[in-house]
Amino acid sequence: MVITTLPATPDEPVTECFFYPGSMEVLTSLPGFPQPLTHPTSPTFRVDAIPGKGMGLVSTRALKAGDLILSERPLLIIVRGMPVLRPYGFTEEQYIQYSFEHLATCVQVCLNRMRPEARAAYMALANSHPKDTCGPIMGILRTNGLCLDGLRPGVENEWKSYSAVCKDISRLNHSCSPNTQPRFDMVSLSYQLFAVRDIAAGEELTYQYTDAARSAAARKAGLKPYDFVCSCVACKAGPASNARRAAIAAFRASGQAWILDRTLPDDWFPSKCREQLALIAREGLEHHPQYFATTRGMMEAYICLGDAQRASAWAAKLDKILWEETRVDVKALLDPMSAQAAYEAHPLWRIRVDEVRAGKMFST
């Protein structure tokens, strides 16, 4: 295991890291690592008391969908569980406790290495596990850790992920219809928090602790470790909201059947996407990957139809979904007047209306 401080720049915020072998190299081998943090041009939030929720984040000015709210390096990145050998005769419960105690020791080592202000910020975070037998440092980790993937390529078991604890983003309270979404940027070793829809000044900033597209009962079960019972509109709506969220999760934004079946109207697939986007907006799930996939489906549908004007309008919407991990660069498609060559080079260009192009695509 590797304990290290990244980046090695004394004049910038840093992260204490407890890594498996190889994870540090994943980061340090990135071209340009570490890039400096990117910040909004003016303050966007404050930490404040939220009635019934403790502390949270509140917007200090109006924000637009896609706006960067904050960037911060985690206080701590640490393994999600210690791979310790199971002592002979230990029950499963005893082994879990044994592993937790080892992990708590590692967290304490990292805390001891932190700058005083970072250590104080960690200890000031909420603890929804006050009776945790491993003490408050583990209760804080269990309450505030964000799942961080991508630092162990090729590893597919339970030891794949890390937990990251942040000074500010970890203070976000849960919502089943969140208005923000964080994205981890490896090259700057930072979480970037984005507005997923327009946010009014003074509005609480929220994030989902569990998959918000699941049923209200499943979300309630997922929130149990946080000692929090959600009473949002979606949870109160019950079956109606559950049905809409299930439809959102099940939708597949692929127009291949529509491309091949010329008996379907030209607007058949765009209409399906518009219905999906309306459900997403009604349920407040713009943070969900389905929002990105469906927006991309709309752009590609109009590319298939050879409509550069409408495709560019949807490319502009897609370009603002900065929080999506699988986002693609569509800047070459934003201006329909200057992007003609880029559209003609696109593999989907006019294949819905040009049988020759469609035949060539699906024969390869």
UniProtKB/TrEMBL annotation:
InterPro entries: SET_dom (IPR001214), SET_dom_sf (IPR046341), SET_domain_protein (IPR053185). Residues 43-210 form the SET domain. CDD domains: SET_SMYD (cd20071). It comes from the Eukaryota. PANTHER family: SET DOMAIN-CONTAINING PROTEIN 5. This is SET domain-containing protein. It comes from Mycena maculata. The lineage of its organism: Eukaryota, Fungi, Dikarya, Basidiomycota, Agaricomycotina.
